[in-house]
Task: inverse folding
């Protein structure tokens, strides 16, 4: 089974924390460092105060040749029909290098900064419906309508399709029963934080249970995220970790 290495990129130097929120020179340099180091993808995160990830991803795509883009997206602030066209357009301009990392949301206070007052369970239900619509928009040739709990529209038609088939890869994050259920249904890759092996095995089992409950026979792949702390010696690394 192939192993994929994913880095993380911001639009400015997070270590320094100074200067403008968008630093084109730093972003370009950081992306090229990932590409030259052989990373497969780079995660472009999302928060209620960060630069628009789609535009960051487009800039990175324009200044790299091979590096994959993993664009974080929170359902709820953009209609799924618009999101589907946006992602498909970026996939076309990047030559099929896009993947979307779906995050239903964590902290209520952070969600509300963008006007999202939905409760956690409702956010996952909305994500489920959102992804149903997005995947149909990517794959259906004929116009279609939708009348659901969170979204309603008539005769949607899209001229833009993803370069990748059958659709743009979907990554999914979360660590609750609702996340395992919805992610198990939709995700190509389910993303976990690094935990002790027993806890990680339990999370993977929950994701697979969600996938089987949705009728899937091919299980989502698993991504595990770590934040290494480096030092010239082990003692120095621990000092930095606690500092």
Result:
């Amino acid at each position: 089974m192939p192993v994929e290495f994913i880095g993380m990129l911001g639009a400015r130097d997070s270590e320094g924390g100074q200067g403008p929120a968008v630093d084109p020179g730093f972003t370009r340099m950081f992306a090229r460092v990932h590409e030259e180091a052989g990373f497969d993808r780079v995660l472009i995160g999302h928060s209620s105060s960060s630069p628009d990830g789609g535009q960051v991803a487009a800039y990175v795509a324009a200044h790299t040749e091979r590096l994959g883009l993993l664009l974080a997206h929170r359902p709820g602030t953009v209609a799924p029909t618009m999101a589907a066209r946006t992602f498909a357009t970026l996939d076309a301009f990047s030559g099929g290098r896009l993947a979307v990392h779906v995050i239903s949301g964590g902290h209520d206070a952070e969600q509300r900064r963008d006007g999202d007052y939905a409760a956690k369970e409702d956010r996952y239900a909305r994500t489920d419906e959102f992804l149903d619509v997005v995947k149909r928009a990517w794959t259906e040739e004929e116009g279609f309508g939708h009348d659901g709990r969170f979204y309603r529209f008539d005769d949607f038609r899209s001229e833009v399709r993803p370069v990748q088939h059958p659709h743009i890869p979907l990554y999914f994050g979360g660590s609750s029963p609702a996340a395992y259920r919805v992610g198990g249904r939709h995700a190509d890759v389910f993303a976990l934080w690094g935990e002790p092996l027993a806890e990680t095995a339990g999370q993977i089992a929950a994701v697979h249970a969600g996938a089987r409950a949705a009728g899937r026979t091919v299980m989502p792949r698993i991504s595990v995220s770590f934040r290494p702390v480096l030092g010239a010696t082990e003692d120095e690394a621990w000092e930095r970790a606690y500092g």
Observations:
- Strands lie at 6-9, 41-44, 68-73, 98-103, 144-147, 152-156, 170-173, 189-193, 221-225.
- The chain has a mean pLDDT of 93.
- The first strand starts at residue 6 and ends at 9.
- Residues 68 and 241 are 29 Å apart (CA to CA).
